[in-house]
Amino acid sequence: MPAVTRTILRDLGLIIHIPGAMALFSVLIALLAGERFAVFPFLFTGALAILIGQTLYRLFQASARTRLPHAMVLASLSWLVVPLLGSLPFLLISTQVGEGPETLLAFREPWNALFEAFSGFTSTGLTVAVSPDELPRSLQWWRSFMEWVGGIGVIVLMLIILDPASDAYRLYRSEGREKKILPNLSATVRIMGRIYFTYTLLAILLLRVLGVPWWEALNHGMTSISTGGFTITGESIAGYSVAVRLAMMALMVLGAISFATHFRLLFERKWLESWQGLQPRALLLLLIGGTLFLLLENRWFLEEWLWMDSMFQWTSALTTSGFSTATIASWSPTAQLLLTLAMVIGGSAGSTAGGIKLNRITVIYKGLIWRFKRTTSLPHELIRYEVDGEVLTEGEIGRRIEAAGILVALWFLLLLLGVIALLHMVPPGTPLNEIVFEASSALSSVGLSTGITAPELAWQGKLTLIMLMWMGRLEIIPVFILFTWPVGRMRDAVEQRMPIGD
pTM (2 decimals)? Predict the structure, then answer.
């Protein structure tokens, strides 16, 4: 077996311990909830994951260090294998009970169980659970737990808990993270963990103080900070008071702000400097401007001033959280397209949010401004290229714009392919804007839906949305490397065996 494959399998074995430990911990939740029928499914899932993980790790423990392309292959495989294991509790618990609500029995269909697990671990929030309030508490917890872990990322969580033999920074970058908060990566991931855990506790306590029952506060606190969107109520956040909705909006925004900004706020106490960067200013501007546009559109179409719903839904879309207080399918096509734009843009890089990310949007925006200045400037006039106080050369800014442009182009290409695929799988007569909305929600890890995602959706449609969620969570590039990696390995093997010509 090639050394590279051995290295990838070794690190994959480490990562598989994460869902195993999650399942074993969830046994306690099942016992506390008095749901003994859920104990075996969690025990089986935990034992299987840890057995596979230990086997892979011990077999290939002495393998070489990881290069970045191999780390990206590992990340792609991890985000396939982890949800596969995460689907087992849905499947097993639904088959353990003889009779139950339709929402639970729907998970006897493997595609539904797999869909929910992928949506959870990618912190997307699209769901085939029609009435989450009818699910057993053990499964309500498992859905929230998956999103909470998926928000920070299974590889980052592995780096927090374990000390892998591979190059940790390459593993860190493979999940789409670039910037280290501290010079030492180990310190960086641990400070991220502290921030994440602290905000989660604060979110739970805030919701409880506002009158939300403990169980709902626990689950919604976890899924709001992770910008996940799973709920345990039948109507998402629509049944809560205005105060709770405002609190949820604040929590969603916290989740969409980068860990680096939180570090400057909490540990370095740089209150003003933290909000002077391009991403925080862009997030604030988009939150205000987008809410106003959506508010006016709803006033035009529905002839009502939907202040709270417009503000909440725009915040939910832009932060890629996926919570809902309104039936979006009843809104105008223009309102749905505005929300689609918000979902595609997404939150800050280095946060728990999905989407293209504000750092790429701002770089492309600045690039357009600089291009306009170059076109209109005098022949010998110098142009200053500056991003967040950092002065860049023309070559450096060109590389940044190129990298952002490539990712955006790939994003829209993948979105187009997803829409084309869904067109053949949804009921005839489904409006195109709703299909674009659903595909964007999956690709940007949001979870808002116009009703296309449902237990009755054909398995091909669920597979399409799963692929979009998977590739969107990894920001596309690692998936392309995974698909082309075997081709590269075969080409290298052929070249090594070719005779040298005269």
Answer: 0.91
